[in-house]
Amino acid sequence: MPQECQCLRGIWTMPLITCFNFWTGERNNGFDVLYHNMKHGHLSTKDLADFIRERATIEEAYSRSMTKLAKSASNYTQLGTFAPVWDVFKTSTEKLASCHLDLVRRLQELIKEVHKYGDEQIKAYKKTKEDVSGTLEAVQNIQSITQALQKSKENYNTKCVEQERLKKEGATQREVDKAAVKSKKATDTYKLYVEKYAAFKSDFEQKMTETAQKFQDIEETHLLRMKEIIESLSNTIKEIHLQIGEVHDEFINNMTNTTVESLIQKFAESKGTGKERPGPIEFEECNTSSAVEGMKPRKRKPFGLSGIMKKEKDTESNIPDVDDEGYSIKPEATQDILFTNHFYSSSDSDSEDDEPRRFHVEIKPVQPNNSSQYTMPSLDELKVSIGNITLSPAISAQMTRNSSSKCESLTFSLFMLAY
């Protein structure tokens, strides 16, 4: 029966539960069960460390996700009156990420503490294995003596039954005496093993009691230490959750203080375009005199088709300046430079006539075959015809372009000469 807690040497101890449940069994294997159970304690410690490490990994991943979420809050649109609310979200999310990161740091410290306890367990197990070596020997003795006792008992019963059978069957006295000797020998052997078993049993009980107490003390220490680790884990998570609760409360308060009026006020202060209203504008009379003086004369573009205008432009570039009688006027400066550079290389050029050369252009109109059907050509047709007349390339290349008024004067002169 399990006993109540006892006070030994001023220290309250738990009742010895292990001995009451591990005395008997197949081949007295209670010791083997208790010994392996002690080794299983180290496996439990390792599993607990793995569990806490996995929790820390989850918290770390959650913290990174919250940090990423806080950064994404800055990327949301900052337009409109709702924009300041994202700052509240960002601050709250960053604090939550910090809380979970703090939990990761504390869990990592707790994992180190669990590993340290695991190393202490290994040292304690090695020492316990040396201490319980005598108990292991006692267990082996009780196991061997139990087997020998069982065999001697079976042999004793067999010999006694054989002797009694020979007596009942009326066997010879020699056979009965021989069976009696064997029975007596089996009886002595059986009694010897019973006595040995009693001695081994006493030693086994004493050592097994002491060893069971050691195993129980180890398990009590192990379980208490594991409970302390779990309590530390629970308190750590509780503290972090309290911090998370404070962050949530702060978020609620910030959202409560972020009123609609304050959001609109912030928008007006940051995006406002000015507080002054537009001034009045009165009607002003138009000052025509100043407007006319400031105007620039407009140039009228000549009206004509694109093809004709292009031909006129090409014709203008090839028509030289003419005098009142229709003779072309040689450009003085340009032609002097041209002739000096290209035609004259000796000093004989100074003796020639310095008067400008004049070219007489005479256009004879075509006599029509039938004067009655003759029609006067238009001005455009004359321009086209005259445009085909070109001067020498060397001279025409050096002539300046004439204005449109001179071209029209030349065209009119040619027209009058023709008719």
Automatic annotation (TrEMBL):
InterPro entries, sorted: AH/BAR_dom_sf (IPR027267), F_BAR_dom (IPR031160), FCH_dom (IPR001060), FCHo2_F-BAR (IPR030122), GMIP/FCHO2-like_FCH (IPR054713)
User: Which PROSITE patterns has this protein been placed in?
Assistant: F_BAR
User: What membrane topology is annotated for this entry?
Assistant: Peripheral membrane protein
> From its record, what is one biological process in GO terms?
clathrin coat assembly
A Pfam entry, by short name = GMIP-like_FCH
Q: Which CDD domains match?
A: F-BAR_FCHO2 (cd07673)
Q: Which domain of life does this protein belong to?
A: Eukaryota
Write the record's keywords in alphabetical order, separated by commas: Coated pit, Coiled coil, Endocytosis, Membrane
What SMART domains has UniProt attached to this entry? Answer: FCH
Q: Which SUPFAM superfamilies match?
A: BAR/IMD domain-like
Instruction: Give the main localization category.
Output: membrane
The terms describing its cellular component in GO are: clathrin-coated pit; clathrin-coated vesicle; plasma membrane; presynapse
Compartments it resides in: Membrane, Clathrin-coated pit
Domain F-BAR residues, every copy = 15-263
In the record, the note on similarity to other proteins reads: Belongs to the FCHO family.
Please report the name of this protein according to its UniProt entry. F-BAR domain-containing protein
